[in-house]
Every structure is written in C-alpha cells, then in structure tokens.
Amino acid sequence: MDQLTDSVYTVSDGETVVVKIIPTKVGNTATFAIGGTPLTQLSKAPPTYQFQVSLQPMQTHFGVVRCDFASDTPADAFFQVRVSGVDANGAPVDYTGPRIGQQDPNRCDMEFRRLAT
After folding, report:
1. Handedness of CA 35, 42, 101, 70 (dihedral sign)
2. How many domains, the chain?
3. Is-contact 29 57, C-beta < 8 A?
4. What whole-number distance in Å separates Cα of residue 16 and Cα of residue 14?
5. Beta strands in the chain (DSSP E)
6. What residue numbers bound the domain in which 82 lies?
7. How many Å apart are CA 74 and CA 1, to the nearest integer?
8. Is the distance from CB of 47 to CB of 97 less than 8 angstroms?
9. Which DSSP state fits 39?
C-alpha cells in the first residue's frame, strides 16, 4: 500500500486493508462501505473496518465513509480516517486519511487502486 492523496491509495491483490474512523467531539456515528456494500465493524470504538483487496491489475475498489453529526454536536467536531496495510516490502504502514468535519459533506469517497504490476 502507498498513499497518493488523503483518500487515494495503491494496493496489492490479496492485501488486507484496515480503515478506522476516529471521532473527536462526536459519537461513533460513521460507517464504511466498499463498492456500495456496507462492511461489518470489527470494532465500534473507534469504528473499524477491514477488507481484502481482490482486484485485477488497473482496477479500483471504491469506498465511501459516511458520517452523522447530531444537531447538538460542537462546531469543531470531526472524524479522522486512518488507513493501514502493508508496503511493497511487506512492512506495516499506517496513513492519515481524510478529515471530515461538520462543514464538509457527510461523506468522503475513497479509492484503493491496483497498479499494472
């Protein structure tokens, strides 16, 4: 895995990807889906999801983080996404992904791309 932007990553076929959505000043009210299919949470605090990459070269898994902010949530509340996997040498990597605040749309699209090799 390598990070191209805060929401775009390159991945390897068979790699396990973990997505954590860490709330700050807001409840654990975020979800993650791949290809339109919601994933089951591994942990509720913080919401944590896992999927295995199953792509042919030059294909992409499209993911979406959805967040809910209650009407009484402080203005500076946000969700911080963390994405982890392994690099080309098999070493663990952990990246800071998108930050989603109340002023942002309540969703963030993500891409997990397999390169040609």
Report:
1. positive
2. 1
3. no
4. 7
5. 2-5, 8-11, 16-24, 30-34, 37-38, 43-44, 47-52, 60-67, 78-86, 92-101, 107-114
6. 2-114
7. 35
8. no
9. P
